[in-house]
Write a structure and sequence with these properties.
- This is Phytanoyl-CoA dioxygenase family protein.
- InterPro entries: Phytyl_CoA_dOase-like (IPR008775).
- The chain has 8 helices and 11 strands.
- By secondary structure, the chain is α+β, with helices and mostly antiparallel strands.
- It has one domain: Sandwich (Jelly Rolls).
- It starts with 18 loop residues before the first helix and ends in a 10-residue tail after the last strand.
Length: about 300
């Protein structure tokens, strides 16, 4: 029972996926309560005041070019490139994918590798310049605008993405989805430019808002996940609900937008909104600082 009051999202959980509780509308009650609590937390901590903060609040994401001053960016870029080369000399990039879906983490002294389908994710521990980024006050306000909670600085990584071949193994991160049932934040601060072929971030503007159409969709997806659990279909029990692109318009949402960006661009997104990893030419790479801020949804105190 306790799990329904946490961030637990998978319907394989006996309480989250409980058929009786879900018949009583539990999933949507969790969604609505989590929305109200994150609004309450935010009211305690931060109010959007700049154009970039209002954009994040209203559209669910923001891309900020030239985020750091040129000298600070150059120092961070040099540190990041040295760290990537150091990791590659110790552990050459693995050749191929292992499994469908999310692979296991392969740990090393510098961090870890993980495949999403054919896409390799290499997470490298941040150096001092990268660690300082996580303490940037302008960045920290953006994290609070999404969640009403300060982002722990330890949840930051230097993140190299090596795009795989979709023909070989599908990467489920390339399907539109929302990460979880409450407001949560991810960021990518791009060290190298991201071109259209490099798998740019794709987001559906305004899809973080809890409209009546969205609530109805949440209910439908929860019902399907409960049904999958009763049938023992593990794939259907995910709590990261997928959405077909053609369904977006039915929810009153606009076309998705892809965001190829120059280096020194910060993208912050509310991943309750629909997003995906963009299409990419196999072998292309992205390099960013990255963090995932997913505070417990039912704690009412902001920070
Ligand atoms: Fe996601």
């Amino acid at each position: 029972m306790y799990s329904i009051f946490t961030s637990m999202k998978v319907f394989s959980d006996p309480w989250v996926g409980h058929p009786g509780l879900n018949r009583l509308g539990m999933h949507n009650k969790r969604v609505k309560a989590a929305q109200a609590i994150s609004r309450f937390r935010r009211a305690q901590t931060v109010r959007p005041r700049t154009a970039e903060e209002r954009h994040l609040d209203e559209q669910g994401f923001v891309a900020i070019h030239d985020f750091l001053p040129a000298d600070r960016f150059a120092a961070l870029r040099d540190e990041a490139h040295a760290a990537v080369e150091g990791a590659a000399s110790e552990t050459p990039l693995p050749a191929g994918p292992e499994v469908w879906g999310f692979g296991d983490s392969d740990r090393h002294g510098w961090g870890f590798d993980r495949f999403d389908g054919s896409t390799l994710n290499r997470f490298i521990r941040p150096g001092p310049q990268a660690a300082a980024f996580a303490r940037n006050p302008r960045f920290r306000r953006l994290a609070r605008i999404v969640t009403g909670k300060a982002m722990p600085v330890r949840r930051n990584w230097l993140y190299q993405t090596v795009n795989g071949d979709e023909e070989e193994i599908h990467d489920i991160q390339r399907e539109f989805h929302r990460d979880t049932f409450f407001n949560a934040m991810k960021y990518w601060y791009f060290i190298d430019p991201v071109d259209a072929d490099d798998g740019p971030f794709v987001y559906v503007p305004g899809s973080h808002l809890l409209t009546p159409e969205r609530l109805a969709w949440e209910q439908k997806k929860a019902n399907a996940a409960v049904h999958a659990r009763m049938k023992g279909d593990r794939g259907g029990m995910t709590g990261s609900f997928r959405i077909e692109e053609r369904e977006l318009a039915r929810l009153g949402l606009p076309e998705p937008s892809a965001y190829p960006v120059p280096a020194n661009t910060l993208i912050v997104a509310n991943v309750f909104g629909f997003h995906r990893r963009g299409d990419a030419v196999p072998g292309t790479r992205r390099l960013s600082l990255y963090g995932n801020h997913r505070p417990q949804p039912f704690i009412p105190f902001g920070s």
